[in-house]
């Protein structure tokens, strides 16, 4: 709904409250054309007085569109409230003219404000143009200087081109060197991998040899223990035999000193061997009084004889 239509309804609210009739028919007409809903119709009907109902209806109509305003006027005329509809139309026309005048005045004031703003902006732009023109002159002078510098630089570009070419060749040589170094690095990496593999194999072999060495040492220790036991047995036997030999030598010496009738306290096999030797010595012509003579020792026959 337009502002002028809202103003017309608000100005005619007293006339509506005092002179409206058949308010139910008006609401039914508005309900028929979709300007009211059933809830709004029931709420308006629940108001106590007709003034409150009329106030509630106008509050709802003001929030509706332009077509609802026109349907409201038709509902008033169809329900016998022609004078109220004409009053609203007259106030709308008067208000519309006043609204147009006010809007025109507002538009004129707005246009004046915009013109003043444009004038101020134009003045600012003129000042900016002056500054920019000065900057353009400065830029033109700088451009001339830059052109002179460009000419000087062109003279030096020949030398720079030669330097650039030399740098390009050096760069290419460096790239080749880098490629060769990368290839050598790859070769060294492969060699390192092979060496690592060989080191792993050597480590595995070393572990195997250590295990074999430990096993061999264990076997040697077992053999040493066995040989040690055998040696101890042999030593015991040798000690026993040495004791027997000492006993025999003592007995033999005693027998030589005391004579043939001396009984030797020694083992039987040693006694038998001694008796045999003593008997043989008695039969020997070089044996005198149970002892060997010095002559018998030096004779050739005594060299081949063994005394036990």
TrEMBL record:
Key words, A-Z: Coiled coil
Residue ranges constituting the CARD domain according to the UniProt record: 1-91
Coiled-coil ranges per UniProt: 101-258
Origin superkingdom: Eukaryota
Keyword Glycoprotein: no
Pfam families hit by this protein: CARD
Any one biological process term the GO annotation gives: regulation of apoptotic process
InterPro entries according to UniProt: CARD, DEATH-like_dom_sf
Protein name: CARD domain-containing protein
Organism encoding this protein: Mytilus coruscus
Lineage: Eukaryota, Metazoa, Spiralia, Lophotrochozoa, Mollusca
């Amino acid at each position: 709904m337009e502002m002028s239509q809202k103003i017309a309804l608000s100005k005619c609210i007293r006339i509506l409250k005092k002179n409206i009739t058949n308010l139910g028919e008006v609401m039914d007409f508005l309900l028929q054309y979709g300007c009211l809903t059933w809830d709004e119709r029931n709420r308006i009907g629940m108001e106590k007085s007709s003034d409150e109902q009329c106030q509630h209806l106008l509050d709802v109509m003001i929030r509706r569109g332009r077509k609802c305003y026109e349907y409201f006027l038709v509902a008033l005329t169809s329900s016998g409230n022609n004078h109220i509809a004409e009053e609203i139309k007259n106030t709308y026309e008067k208000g519309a003219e006043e609204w147009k005048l006010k809007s025109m005045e507002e538009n004129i004031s707005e246009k004046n404000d915009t013109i003043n703003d444009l004038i101020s902006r134009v003045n600012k732009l003129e000042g900016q143009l002056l500054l920019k023109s000065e900057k353009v002159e400065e830029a033109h002078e700088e451009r001339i200087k830059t052109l002179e510098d460009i000419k000087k630089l062109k003279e030096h570009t020949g030398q720079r081109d030669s330097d650039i070419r030399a740098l390009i060749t050096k760069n290419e040589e460096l790239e080749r060197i880098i490629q060769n170094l990368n290839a050598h690095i790859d070769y060294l990496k492969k060699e390192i991998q092979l060496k690592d593999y060989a080191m792993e194999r050597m480590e595995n072999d070393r572990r195997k040899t250590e295990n074999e060495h430990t096993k061999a040492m264990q076997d040697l220790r077992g053999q040493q223990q066995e040989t040690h036991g055998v040696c101890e047995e042999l030593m015991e036997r040798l000690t026993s035999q040495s004791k027997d030999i000492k006993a025999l030598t003592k007995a033999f010496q005693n027998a030589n000193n005391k004579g043939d009738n001396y009984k030797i306290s020694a083992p039987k096999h040693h006694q038998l061997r001694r008796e045999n030797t003593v008997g043989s010595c008695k039969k020997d012509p070089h044996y005198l009084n149970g002892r060997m003579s010095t002559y018998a020792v030096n004779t050739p026959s005594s060299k081949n004889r063994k005394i036990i």
